[in-house]
Amino acid sequence: MDTSQQLHQYLFPDDEINVFAVLDGASVPDLLAQLHEHQPDHVCLYRGELEPGLAEAAPCLIQLKPNFEFSNWLIENGQGKHWGIFAQSYADLRTLRRHFRSFLTVHDEGGRPLLFRYYDPRVMRKYLPTCNAKELALVFGSVESYLVEDEDAVSMLRFTRDARKLRLEKKLLSDGN
Questions:
Q1: Which among 90, 140, 146, 150 is placed 20 to 30 Å from 126, CA to CA?
Q2: What is the pLDDT of residues 91-119, one digit of tens each?
Q3: Where are the domains of the chain?
């Protein structure tokens, strides 16, 4: 089984849970064109009418479906490129948009707002292990698990939360595993 097939099985373990991607428009070449071409259910995480340049760079929440053209394109082309993160949830797109929007902006010690690029897998895999129980509750909300590419680009990390504690599982995606 090749890496793409293994990633597909890891993302879509059953038909019960919804799978989403939060993708960074600044990192994914032609994301808006791919969304237009394949028409998955998706929403921009920024509010309002955006200037074209900002619209291209904005993070998008996309609901993925097994064996759907956009899902296949993302799985086959995005691994190891830091395009975004995956989330598994029983919630719907609208609920998750509200959730993911809630922590796009954070404040530094001086109260200045900062854009929090949690949807960059390099950020998420470093950030989650530093969270206390209250922060984990905020970041997880109705998300059952986050799936994030590992540094080696051939492994996925699944972060879950159990009894106020973060759990981590590493899955090697390569032939024979």
A1: 90
A2: 999 999 999 999 899 889 999 999 899 99
A3: 3-172
- Cα 45 to Cα 67, 90, 99, 117: the distances in Å are 25, 19, 10, 12
Sign of CA dihedral 129, 133, 138, 144: positive
Angle of helix 31-38 relative to helix 69-78, nearest 10 degrees, comes to: 150
pLDDT at position 177, please? 44
Q: What is the DSSP string of 100-145?
A: HHTTSEEE-TT--EEE--TTSHHHHHHHGGG--HHHHHHHHTTEEE
Phi/psi at 156 (nearest 5 deg)?
A: -115, 145
Beta-carbon contacts of residue 21 (< 8 Å; ≥ 6 apart): 61, 62, 64, 74, 84, 85, 86, 87
Q: d(Cα 177, Cα 171) in Å, to the nearest integer?
A: 9
What is the distance, to the nearest Å, from the Cα of residue 57 to the centroid of all Cα atoms in its chain? 15
- Specify whether the CB–CB gap between 155 and 137 falls below 8 A: no
